[in-house]
Amino acid sequence: MDPTDPLTNHTPAGKIRTLIRGATGRCSVDGNLLVSARWTKLPDTCSRCGIKLERKEGQFVGAVGINTILSFGVMLIVMLAGIALTAPDIAVGRLVLATGAAALIAPLFLLPLSKTIWNAIDLLMIPLEPGEAPLLEHELAKKSA
Ligand SMILES: [Zn+2]
Question: What pTM did the predictor assign?
Fold first, then answer.
């Protein structure tokens, strides 16, 4: 770590805050909103700090893992709600249809959030390296000058 490097002198957000930023569709570094009303149009980089959402090649696999976990969670909730609503005569056919629909829709709906969540987790495991958030580094250099 270079003590003169503005990036290493930058105080990053805490772990919980970083994860909350990711879970709410925000940039893990600066909290800039990335997931907007145009849900499917997630930018490749944050417009405020310049960090890439896919920091390293193959990082997409982690987002797919998060997406799978979240989608199974949605399916479980749909299934348990269906059982609770129709008990004691559980409507198995409708339950299978509803859970199947959730299995098709949830991964598409949750993909942008999965990417920001995984970016936050990745940032906690591998801290920012010089050059990764060029706009933030430029801003920090301006402040320290
Ligand atoms: Zn950012």
Answer: 0.82
